[in-house]
Amino acid sequence: MCKYCVEHGEGKKWYLNAKNYSNELLAKHEDIVKDGVEKIDSVAPLTLGRELNRYRKIPIVRRLIPSITQRKLERWHFGQVLPIEDVEEIFGFIQLVVRFPCACRSILWGRRDQRYCYGIGLGIFPDQIMGQYPDITEDLHLEKLQKDEALSALRGHEGQGNLHSVWTFGMPFTGVICNCTLQDCITMRASVVYGARMLMKGEYVAHIDIEKCNGCKECMKQCSFGAITYSSTLGRAKINPQVCWGCGICRIVCGEDAIVLKDRNAIPGLKDNWF
Prior knowledge:
Blueprint: H1 3-8, H2 23-28, H3 30-40, H4 44-55, H5 59-74, E1 77-82, H6 84-91, E2 96-100, H7 103-109, E3 117-121, H8 124-129, E4 143-145, H9 147-159, E5 163-169, E6 174-180, H10 186-194, E7 199-200, E8 204-208, H11 218-222, E9 228-231, E10 236-239, E11 259-263
Parallel strand pairs: 1-7
Antiparallel strand pairs: 1-5, 2-3, 2-4, 3-6, 5-6, 8-11, 9-10
Helix pairs in contact: 4-10, 6-9
């Protein structure tokens, strides 16, 4: 498991520990949480992207970006990729789900109608805290959903090529599930392209059973990270575990059920490969 699981998971993956969503923990982190929500609805993601693009051109600064940003973001807003099975497990203990427009899509494409982000929790955070920021909700009330309704929408996002990620506001307080692609997410792009370490790889790695694969290449279209390649000699696809982020959305387009998720920690060389 990653270091956050060790520190905050109590024997589980950190995001599966219900205590990390509690109102008690929220009370301890309330200033950080409110600051984080304000930044999400501001131009902070765009500003970060511009700064990273500028600093990336300076060799010595480029080498320092990962460690600097990770320490800062652990105190503000930090995420990890997860598959739908773990999302379902989270929904087993949370009590409230609210959907709101995606800040990244608003900044990148000027679209305030793209409701791909979900505030989750045990009551106070998604309802009372997020409700204090009307710009997030386009001057409307937060769109409260039943859990089964939200899960159905999340599965639909997968079909569009969106992977799931869970986010903190001051580790370990956890309050948001996002659904993004590399093209639509500023924080994902900052992590993958610039090495900013805002988003961590999932606890899993996808694997293709070569005996089941029929070489249709549909999974390649679904992957945001370019982890899947195709052998014209074998007529089969293959996943590079070093590049895979473990989201599992490639499975949804595989008609042969040839793709499975394996524990990242059990694969040699991947135990510490989180970014």
